[in-house]
Structures are given as structure tokens and as C-alpha cells.
UniProtKB/TrEMBL annotation:
Gene Ontology molecular function: cysteine-type peptidase activity
Domain Ubiquitin-like protease family profile: residue ranges: 1-88
GO biological process, one term: proteolysis
Keyword terms: Hydrolase, Protease
Taxonomic lineage from the root: Eukaryota, Viridiplantae, Streptophyta, Embryophyta, Tracheophyta
Protein name: Ubiquitin-like protease family profile domain-containing protein
Pfam family, one: Peptidase_C48
Length: 129
């Protein structure tokens, strides 16, 4: 387990793969290192489904720990990971731009993620009810 994470607890982190260059970007709202189990799962997935057109002959990705906003409390990691995804999809350069030096997300930014999640879940419930 990473520093600051208690045994038998759950914590969200994000791995974004750049398959052409074989880079695994790791984003963690508590700034923990990726555990060996996570690295092995990613490596196994790549072995099962190798990239077709990659710019390197490496079989395993190079891991890059992304400097990203950190959660202020102890239970926001899921919202932070969803915000990382939202911002990275909107601007993939966030992975190398260090999220413009932001130390954490504002309450408004986290509430936007909560609202998006509620809207999605409501739509799923209505559609499948």
C-alpha cells in the first residue's frame, strides 16, 4: 500500500496509457507511488493485447508519476480521479503540464464532478427502470 493508505482500505488512482510510446502515466490524489500489483496488472493487459503501432520495441511501459492536484481530505479520491479523467480528455497535455501547478481542485470543480455523476446515474436508472 502507498504511504498514507491504511491496510484493508480502498483508494482510487488513475493510469493513463500512451501505447505508441509505451508510457504509463500514474495519477494519485494522495501522491502515492503505484504499487507493484498495479504495474503487473497493466503489464499483463499489454501482453494480452499488445499495441499495433508503437514507436518503441519495449514490452513494458515506462511509468511516469504525474504531478497532479492532491485531495485535501481522506475520502475524495474517487472524485479527484474522475476530475483527472475529465480534464485529461479535454486536454491530454495535462499529463505533462502538471495540471498547471494546481495543488488541489476547488470545491466547485469537485461539485461539478458530483453533479455529472448524479446526472449519469439518474439517466441510467431512468433508462433501465
Amino acid at each position: 500500500m502507498g504511504e498514507g493508505i491504511k491496510e484493508n482500505s480502498f483508494h482510487w488512482g488513475l493510469v493513463a496509457l500512451e501505447m505508441k510510446r509505451m508510457i504509463a502515466y500514474y495519477l494519485d490524489p494522495m501522491a502515492c507511488q503505484p504499487c507493484d500489483d498495479l504495474k503487473e496488472i497493466v503489464n499483463m493487459a499489454i501482453r494480452i493485447n499488445p499495441p499495433e503501432k508503437q514507436k518503441t520495441s519495449k514490452n513494458e511501459p515506462t511509468w511516469v508519476k504525474v504531478i497532479c492536484p492532491r485531495q485535501l481530505g481522506s475520502v475524495e479520491c474517487g472524485y479527484y480521479v474522475m476530475r483527472y479523467m475529465k480534464e485529461t480528455i479535454a486536454n491530454p497535455n495535462q499529463l505533462t503540464a502538471k495540471f498547471d501547478g494546481r495543488k488541489s481542485f476547488s470545491e466547485m470543480e469537485i461539485n461539478e464532478v458530483r453533479s455529472d455523476w448524479i446526472m449519469l446515474m439518474t439517466q441510467l436508472i431512468i433508462t433501465h427502470a
